[in-house]
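Form 12-C: Joint structure prediction
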Amino acid sequence: MTKEFDRAVFESTLTKRFFYVPSFSIYGGVAGLYDYGPIGSVLQQNLINIWRKHFVIEEDMLEMDGAIITPSEVLKTSGHVEKFTDYMCRDVKTNEVFRADHLVEGILEMRIEESKLAKQAASGEGAGAEKAKKGGKGKVPKGAVVLSEEVEKKYEEILAQIDNFNGDQLGEIIKEYEIRNPATNNEVTEPVAFNLMFDSSIGPTGNLKGYLRPETAQAQFVNFQRLYEFNNKKMPFASAMVGKSFRNEISPRAGLLRVREFTMAEIEHYVDPLKKDHPKYEEVKEIHLNFLPAEVQESGSSTTVSMSIGEAVEKKIVNNQTLGYFLGRIYLFLAKIGIDETRLRFRQHMSNEMAHYATDCWDAEIKSSYGWVECVGCADRSAYDLTAHSRRTGVNLCAQEELEIPIVYDALVCVFNKRLFGPKFKQNAKKIQEALEALPQEQLAEIKKELDSAGKCSASLGLPEPVEITSDLLTIEMQNFKKSVREYTPNVIEPSFGIGRILYSLLEHSYYTRPDDASRTVFAFNPQISPIKCLVLPLLTGPAFSASLNHITKTLRSAGVAARIDDASSASIGRRYARNDELGIPFAITIDQLTVSENLVTLRERDSCQQIRANVDTIINIVIDIVNGKSSWEDVLKSHPTLSSDS
Amino acid sequence: MTKEFDRAVFESTLTKRFFYVPSFSIYGGVAGLYDYGPIGSVLQQNLINIWRKHFVIEEDMLEMDGAIITPSEVLKTSGHVEKFTDYMCRDVKTNEVFRADHLVEGILEMRIEESKLAKQAASGEGAGAEKAKKGGKGKVPKGAVVLSEEVEKKYEEILAQIDNFNGDQLGEIIKEYEIRNPATNNEVTEPVAFNLMFDSSIGPTGNLKGYLRPETAQAQFVNFQRLYEFNNKKMPFASAMVGKSFRNEISPRAGLLRVREFTMAEIEHYVDPLKKDHPKYEEVKEIHLNFLPAEVQESGSSTTVSMSIGEAVEKKIVNNQTLGYFLGRIYLFLAKIGIDETRLRFRQHMSNEMAHYATDCWDAEIKSSYGWVECVGCADRSAYDLTAHSRRTGVNLCAQEELEIPIVYDALVCVFNKRLFGPKFKQNAKKIQEALEALPQEQLAEIKKELDSAGKCSASLGLPEPVEITSDLLTIEMQNFKKSVREYTPNVIEPSFGIGRILYSLLEHSYYTRPDDASRTVFAFNPQISPIKCLVLPLLTGPAFSASLNHITKTLRSAGVAARIDDASSASIGRRYARNDELGIPFAITIDQLTVSENLVTLRERDSCQQIRANVDTIINIVIDIVNGKSSWEDVLKSHPTLSSDS
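Section 2 - Result
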């Protein structure tokens, strides 16, 4: 199917049938913003509902709904104010703006392509030769340069690492390879960092700066203590949040895949760093996934390895059970909603592409016409965020473990002579005291030795000047301790779902055309995720028909089953089936003369086009049961013979 | 219950059990932003899911999910850039900011109260006298002034109209009555308009201004044509959207009732202005509501009238069937989720409080400890928005009606002599031509008369100068027309739900304390809306107990039923029931020795504290059926005798 896939036709169907469209299009639209119509929005909702059942309910997670507007202090702590940036440059004359890495990428790819065409034209062979002959729009562009093998290799190297360059490096590449605005041939400015968060001001004073959140995670972390208490202080546990996040892309592209406003579903699983096993690990251990480990990629290959999660964890390809468990659950979720398993792989991040907070990361990547796209990230954020927020606010964000056997140990401690210490160091006293108390045991032992022998000691305590301490100010003693509670900052394993990307992939994977008629497009949504569950088609009008129509739609809708009526008597039944197949509606009930005379209706299944006929209420119950997952079309066929198939 | 209601205790329960808390509280919090915890967020979700089933599915509405970030052009057209403001003033010395109407209101209310206390202190009677004697915190404040009857009456009048003053009027009141910052006694500045939208900049150039949407409605209006087409061009129909909207309040107060970020659910029902009847009107006609019509309020009363929707529509108290239909559906929805019907009324807006776009408006107001609060607005926005967007963009936002009997009529039309007309008026030619074509028939008739008689005519066409037209340039002719399609801009009836306000009201209405122990608080959520459906309590630990525990929780959760385990063996069963009643969990399954020996468990209902005992799977199915609305506790008791009731 992928081979014949025509994205232009596909996208025009999505727009025509209002799955989603650029926002505010009657005002010319805004890049990177989309409105989801009746199909797109309900598909997204159903996807989220399945997600909630699969993760939040089945795994007993603590869901939250936090604020979108986030004060800058919080995002300074998380690192987003400093690091959540892309590089941009401008055309020096027209001021047109480019994302620097995309500009370099685009130009180098174009030069390689043009060089290939020009070479072919020169040699008289291949596509370039054809184009050179034809002239016109397809001809080898003027100024196309044949690249030396060395330059071409250099270009390929740059393209392979394009995600890893910082602004200075991009600036050097732009200078060295004379990258210009392709539209004007003007030079572009040095790349500057552009923060990707939308900012605003909270309240009327203008003094409180805020941002639209770039992820839902931070609102979960800052509530860690409340979540931990809600969970009766039991570890491990997870919180979860579904909601919109924002990213002020420099130049949005690739439809739903890179947008400025997007729905995320994020899980933060808090775990003891010493106990990364998972109580339900056994349930996923035997599942086979397509893995693409970092090692394989670093060796230059992108061949996936199929193995069981159990094997991957045992071989330390996947770091721990908890990570493995979530990879398995992510797989089960994606399969459940209808993602094609053969177009799904789990790719490990290489060390140079990891986010600033992550220590290990696996992406669930789904293949579409845009290539392999990250749709779910599963990162081990270690203790990064909780530690940073705790340090910044002074609030304890730790978990406690009661030790069955208390730990008894000796340790050196500082005993200060407060009467002398304060007056001696004045405003620095507190700082020096804290620095001494924070010293590791070995250093304390050294100081003790010097104080005991020489009666004084000069210590560099991270202050501008070394401090001289005398034995009248400080005694260092060995004391005995007993600890019955172990306190630790939990590590966080974070499966983070890009709902829009999953939804787009699902649309591509669900799309097909009827073998006998390429103009008849169908979306093969399964009955659980399909936005509209049942079409109701009256073949004639009149009171008898309306009564049946009302009974059927009212009964279905009262059971929470979305039903659509297509009663345009001007359109043929085939035409009506076709235009509703395009909305992915799995079932259609047709009301005809036999309904009026014998209370019988037909039920048609979308993909097979098979039909059965039965009593109205029997058919209604069949639809409700399938939608609720209590039955399937195959089950139904066992007790109901099919009529002749329609087309 | 309301009488004994202690809001401080109530709110501390909400915070302690993480229903919702101020956002980013470890950073000191941000006024007007709240994070919903595991109970609050899922309660909100369930509320929205019931809303979706009740409205979107049962009424076959077209749901959308539009962008939050909205370009300023759209909100200029809707009137928000100009009119979505409150007035604020500042302390002239400290710069502290006040919302002007709230400041006036607060000060006048305080003066009236102080005057009352001072009068009582002087006369030696009442609360003021008590306070005057006691002194200390409760004493009559220094500087309390006894107001003359006339001044007090004036204050009362101002307070009654506080929502209706513009900035200048508020400024005059502030001057005339010497309103100052109560904390510093400094004067305050003239009130200035403050726009309540959060603004931001879209993209990297800084040239495209955007706002966070103040309502979801506009994203629906700008997509009207796509929605209409999706509905196969049938009228009437409705679109709907659920999502966050934003309002940069000057000084947020009253908890969830006035916040900066809130979830709305809005329906836009598009209807032919000539046909405001509703096909399902019969279904709600007999429902009795408590009405508070504008007329009653204008006569100074706030006594509600109970009558049927049918009667209210017939008497023109409610303008039309469609409005009446939605009032009925709103009532049914609120009753379904658990709002106390005796604390619900429908209040009509008086003409001076209507929003700029509305022609009629009814609010569903719910009574809580904050008084009567608007929770659902149901406005007739007429054709305001569609007309404005269409005019601004030039895009047709009309519906078409095929006329069964075409209309045949004669009309005057302009026939231009293009060869002469263009050269004569040059760059103004097009403008003049359009102005002439847009003239009403009477004016055309006059011009025709003059041209026919004098051969020329001077016409003021809305241009700076009158234009002289001669009969060689223009002929006005009577022509015959036949119209088989009637085109009109639909009117919009908009039920708009403030989800946070409904949720807060529901919390107050659901809250009670056990008659025998005021410290044991309970939330009486019904099984459909309750965030957690079932508590599972193992009374002992060990493998046999864990096996039952796992079986029960896994079965419930697989059926989508949220279950919580409380296995803290250190806490007594009574204590465990109590702390989970506080989360509103309707059912509790207890695992005890009889579970291990005979596979029996008990099931306890939260409000009655009644218990039954039965086989594990029987009990599980009872819970699932009640949660899915297929059965009720009363039904269950018919076939299962209760055990002795616990406390």
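Section 3 - Comments
Chain A is about 35% helix and 25% strand. Residues 532-639 of chain A form a domain with the Rossmann fold fold (CATH 3.40.50.800).
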